[in-house]
Design a protein that fits this description.
Blueprint lengths: L1 H17 L10 E4 L7 H16 L6 E4 L12 H6 L5 E5 H4 L21 H9 L2 H12 L3 E5 L5 E5 L7 H4 L3 E4 L3 H9 L3 E4 L2 H9 L5 E4 L1 H4 L10 E8 L3 E5 L1 H6 L2 H23 L9 H8 L9 H7 L3 E3 L3 H22 L1 H12 L3
Parallel strand pairs: 1-2, 1-3, 6-7, 6-8, 9-11
Antiparallel strand pairs: 3-10, 4-10, 5-8, 5-9
The protein binds (2S)-2-hydroxy-2-methyl-3-oxobutanoic acid.
């Protein structure tokens, strides 16, 4: 009998060691973002973490690490670190993942969305359309579980020297860009002197006048007080910058179905919040719907009129005329043409069709 019990016990031990245990949840899941929590990008990421924590009864604890802490400032390594599990979750810009996933350069094609009658409608048509599905598939093929899009915003130009509406105005200016080759090509084509620099180094470079200009959405540069140094802002909307909520696939597989559904739903709601924050006070055709939505979730922002807010800081805002815009479009057309094939002709065409369907 004793022998039998010992045998039974050892069999049970062997069996339990080979059976897959219900995956234990981590105490903390690390979520990567590049800017500070005070930006719209950061607020959207924090909202996601808050919703997940609340709805999982505290079981799933996502911590937002701002200022590119998880990539030690190397923001264009972010996708590799998500893939290898150093980063669990991310709310990332397509720009930072584009060195590993060329398809993501779609959103940074110069004046691709800005040339459409309604740039926001065009962007939604792409993120929610066939092109968006292709982009999500490209991310998944490279080893990231895609949840949904959010938004950093349309990227505007700021500088300390002069009002800019043409390539001549940009001539010779040192402009900080992200370490992504398409951005270098665009600014070179416009006659500027682009320099790549991590966002974490950019603020001090601006304060010290090491660079003359930079490009980011208003919602991202304002909280960092860049308007105190750059008194000229150009509303040219030259590239779109959606964010993407993504998860490491192994981490995703460790959640049960119910929690996966909860996380996906939270990402969608946080994405919608981020989109509305990126647009409120900037989308001249929204008919008030972004503010209404933000109010409905109890998150109406303090700043509702970006133009006046910037002007009150002594900023001169330049909006290029349609003729001036055409010159910028023409100057960067060779860059757009050259990048179509790098991104994939099929994807660019799908995006053009998505945009045409809402015109
Ligand atoms: O580095 C930037 O410019 C930023 C914060 O917008 C991105 O991470 C793409």
């Amino acid at each position: 009998m004793k022998k039998f019990l010992v045998l039974l016990l050892s069999v049970l031990m062997v069996v339990s060691s080979v059976l897959p245990a219900a995956a234990a949840y981590k105490n903390e899941y690390k979520l990567d973002i590049v800017p500070s929590i005070t930006t719209g990008w950061g607020m959207g990421a924090q909202y996601f973490a808050d919703l997940v924590k609340e709805r999982s009864g505290g079981k799933i604890n996502i911590k937002v690490y701002p200022n590119a802490q998880l990539t030690t400032g190397q923001q264009t390594n972010a996708f590799m670190l998500l893939r290898n599990g150093t980063i669990d979750f991310a709310c990332q810009s397509t720009i930072n993942y584009s060195p590993q996933i060329p398809e993501l350069n779609l959103f940074a094609l110069p004046f691709f969305f800005a040339s459409q009658p309604d740039r926001y409608k065009a962007m939604d048509a792409v993120t929610q359309g066939r092109a968006g599905e292709m982009v999500a598939a490209a991310i998944e093929a490279k080893g990231g579980k895609f949840l949904c899009f959010g938004e950093n915003g349309f990227r505007e130009l700021t500088n300390s020297k002069r009002s800019i509406a043409s390539p001549e105005d940009l001539s010779g200016l040192k402009i900080r860009v992200v370490g992504s080759p398409l951005f270098l090509d665009i600014f070179k084509a416009l006659g500027a002197n682009p320099v790549t620099m991590a966002w974490s180094d950019t603020i001090s470079a601006i304060q010290q006048g090491v660079v003359d200009g930079q490009e980011n959405p208003v919602n991202t540069f304002y909280p960092l007080k860049i308007q105190e140094y750059h008194k000229f802002v150009t509303y040219w909307h030259y590239v779109a910058d959606p964010t993407m909520f993504v998860v490491n696939p192994k981490v995703w597989a460790s959640f049960n179905e119910e929690d996966q559904a909860l996380i996906l739903q939270a990402a969608k709601e946080a994405g919608a919040y981020q989109v509305a924050l990126a647009r409120v006070g900037l989308d001249e055709n929204d008919g008030g719907k972004n503010l209404e939505f933000l109010k409905s979730i109890g998150k109406a922002p303090e700043i509702l009129d970006w133009t006046t807010t910037l002007q009150d800081c002594g900023v001169t805002i330049t909006t290029p005329t349609p003729e001036q815009m055409q010159v910028l479009v023409d100057k960067t057309k060779p860059v757009l043409d050259a990048w179509r094939s790098k991104i994939g002709e099929e994807l660019v065409k799908a995006a053009e069709e998505d945009m045409a369907s809402v015109r």
